[in-house]
What does this fold into?
Amino acid sequence: MSTELATLLRHDTGRDHRPVGAVVTGLGIVSPIGLGVERFWAATLAGRSGIAEITRFDASGYPSRLAGEVDGFRPEEHISSRLLPQTDHMTRMALAATDWALADAGVDPAGRPEYSMSVATAASAGGFEFGQRELEKLWGRGPLHVSAYQSFAWFYAVNTGQISIRHGMRGPSGVVVGDGASGLDVIAQARRLLRRGSGLVVTGSVDSNLCPWGWVAHLAGGGVSTVDDPAAAYRPFDSATSGYVPGEGGAILVLEDRDSAGDRGYGLVAGHGATFDGPDEPPGAGLRRSAELALDDAGIGPDRVDLVLADAAGSLDLDLAEVAVLTALFGEWGVPVTAPKTMTGRLSSGSAPLDVATALLALRDGVVPPTVHVTAPHPAIDLVRDRPRPAPLSTVLVLARGRGGFNSALVVQRLAV
Amino acid sequence: MNRRVGITGIGVIAPGGCGTAAFWDLLTTGRTATRHISTFDAAPYRSQIAAECDFCPLDFGLAAEDAAHLDRAAQFALAATGEALSCSGLTPRDRGERWGLVLGSAVGATMGLDREYAEVSGRGASWLVDHTRAVGHLYDYFVPSSMAAEVARRVGVRGPVSMVSAGCTSGLDAVAHGTELVREGSADVVLAGATDAPISPITVACFDAIKATSSRNDDPATASRPFDATRDGFVLGEGAAVFVLEELGAARRRGARIHAEVAGFAARCNAFHMTGLRPDGREMAEAITAALDECRLDPDDVDYVNAHGSGTKQNDWHETAALKKALGPRAHEIPMSSIKSMVGHSLGAIGSIELAACALAIEDQVVPPTANLHVPDPECDLDYVPHTARDQDLDVVLSVGSGFGGFQSAMLLAREGVLDR
It folds into this structure.
């Protein structure tokens, strides 16, 4: 097909709902179980958990003391000394993950048209640790002590702005705010940017709010596990589930148009659906609608799904609602289900992009990564536990929810389907 | 078949009078709503002025409990949504699955966070803040998508719901995203808009630190002076605007009043500096050109430009250069004004509030003025419509925005029917 014709066709389909080939060509991962794609993936397949006692601050006085912290990230290796005082921890990690994702994709942004590159990241609470420091100065010492960088270091758009500056990406860019579903919604937004003509979009999220102020906000929200045993604190779908464990990290993805991706790429973002729970809907109905929309968008039925990466909230009600969705769509034991986030904790807006990265690696290697720490899983689902399970995989469904009623589902597929 | 998008409902909460009618009256009479900050003691701050909303949540159907728990920005969003819905005559009823919601915000629940931080930290006394003093709804301030959830839940929206943020272009980008959801068929009706309530100690302090805000504390009513040679920064504002975006064919079939059509939009980043702007305005110019291209219009079609016009030295030069670059000689002929001269700069919300002004301008065929423009800046040499509103034939209007992070956005609204030709 001539480039001209391809361009024309793209314009023709630009305003309907048919998917354009959105290929993930690069991944950058910062996680509690490893920095970089291969270290993360090896730890995931080995079932190695990164949940441990909090070291970032003294958590002994709080009712919950476990988190998934990123170990061994040395910001000075990635961030210039000029930029360090201007950035929160999560921004530094996001910038490093972006560097890795671009290198993984084999993309040199300097060689691309500046307006053809976009950035779309998710955020939950912005640079919250940076914000706590500045709030402490403001209230403890007075307004003259507040940093000149506060005006942008904490706000929700900071990572998108900093990534854009670092790589000279001047295309349409933005941020989706939320704690769970936003991490899938932003990848859908990246796909829209491709449809509108961007050639490359840096997307996903690396998030962190592991400071006392962020911790207290998590605790106020309820649902954080108060169990002290790292192997028992976050056990979604287990009859003894006790809540969730917060963590930090996530994944940055490079999304490219199929034409510019050529043979490169981990897989295709094939479908997305987003819904909001209605007040009168039964539990799980909204999540089910999002999954159905995503499958419909991908042009496939549930029978084509080989694996589900579950939201795995860790609360009894939410877990049961998700089980109801899975059994309604696929039947009892109808599809393998896994939740590798049991090793990392829930990373606010970073979890869903990390799940998408995990799904793509599972497709690449034909193996289902395990769920850990669950000893008494719900009997209606085929939860892949403790050991990886080899399986031919072509299509993976990723589910995510956000507090308040947000649901999102994303379908990823092998390139050669 | 391309799906087009009409604005069939508008709700505005803005300084100087809540509700669309009061807002439009303020703008068209050229009055200003900037004043001394009343919500906290601003004496220790460099900038002690803001444009505040005289907002009583109970007047908008909110319960006393809502007023106590919901951040002020969430209250604004609910109130603006209520007005927009009643203006449109629509409710989701059993069609909630086909309704979406996109809410923009630059700084989320800043007031709630600032207040609760002071409480749990003993006014900054302890790094290990006290969880026993935290309110249950702190999490909703922490992750401000709670605001979008609150609105969606109360209205009965069951389709795609999200909060978007792109600094001070959030309000334009939210409407752009909502428009896309309707165009692509993900929803038939989208409530789209933006809210911010940033007049809190931490926000005032952080703009003090970079001297972005005006310190004309002795004369707050004339402190916001976009394009005037004596301008010394923006004046912080607050508020919200929400639109009912409806698939145009359906809106016409039900005989809805269509305030304006969303014609086109585009965004660019300057990849230059988190708070600085390149003087030549090239990325904003690029966004304007791309927005015009999207709806196959050209500079001659544009009848009015609603400026970002924040009143910082840098912005107003940047923007004037961008418009000249994008519109060529036509830039000198098109009236262009900044309503921030009257209602201040409400960060993420202002993009939507300015779009409301654009839609109302199209309906009334009136261009709102730029207040406080007395001393011309030789480098700002366009027609900024000083002081007095102007009757004008308006078919197509352009609104532009510029935000921290380098975001540049442009959106075009058209009078109903104009794009059928």
Q: What stands out?
A: Residues 5-253 of chain B form a domain with the Peroxisomal Thiolase; Chain A, domain 1 fold (CATH 3.40.47.10). Chain B has two domains: 5-253, 264-416. The mean pLDDT of chain B is 97.
